[in-house]
Amino acid sequence: MNAMEPINIINNERQQQFQASVDGEIAYMEYRLKDDMIVLMHTDVPERFSGKGIATSIAAFAFKYAKEKGLKVKVYCPFVLTFVKRHPELSSQLAI
Q: What's the pTM value of the predicted model, to 2 decimals?
């Protein structure tokens, strides 16, 4: 994977995952929709792509999706909790 390649992320609604395909492997963030909220459960990136910003891109995509759909965000995923700490401007989207 070239660092300059954009990461293409899709919303696989059937599997309830935001997915990025990287060199034939899938990195994903599992979510659940509940009322007016999206619950970010778990993020998984293949080990060989760790540290390349893929999980960060998926997390940003998830928050953008939530904002566009008017959903509050509840976070169970430890990676996303760290992501929100690095991007405090997103805290207004969090469910109380």
A: 0.92
